[in-house]
Write a structure and sequence with these properties.
Helix content is 47%, strand content 26%. By secondary structure, it is of the alpha+beta class.
Length: 215
Amino acid sequence: MWKSGWKIKKEWVQGKERWMFLLVCGLFLLILSVPAGSGERKAREAAASALSDPKEENAGDGALEGVSGLPGSAARKNQDAERLYEQELEERVREILRHVDGVGEVDVMITLRSSKEKVIHVDKDKSRSSTEEKDSAGGTRTALTEDIKESALLSGSAGSGGDPVIEKELLPEIAGIVISAQGGGSAQVRAEISEAMVALFGIPAHKIKVLKRVE
């Protein structure tokens, strides 16, 4: 009889614990189902939008690339200017060689070592001063000091903040020339082309290569 009562009590306790567990789970699910506040909801929506649309993250970078004042844009402009200068030289050399006997049709490739350089005009202001110094023996000596101040000359009126005055512009230095010519199989033609390039650009002959063009 005592054992039977203990068994009933044990089953009742286990059933009670099971119901308590189910009740806690139900309350937890109820809390999760409550709608979030407007601020939290907006934050979640903004985060989801940013993750789903990567183009918006890079939109700022693309806009900055179009600004001419940025270093990247200036570098691209310099590269474009250098390439245009190369093409101009190549076309001029091509036109000259086409009218030379024995050369025939030609292709020209010129590479540059450096970009165009602008030399700014600089004003130099020199001042000298002398001082007399006495040594421990009672003698005197004169010490001369020279001070040189350099400043870039600006265009426009004084204090207007104009651009620096350009004294001269140095053209890009040519690194090498490759020429493919129909008459490149002749040693005489190759020598004449090489000598012409040396005379035009003042570069050493070992930086000039003349090849026979194959159709």
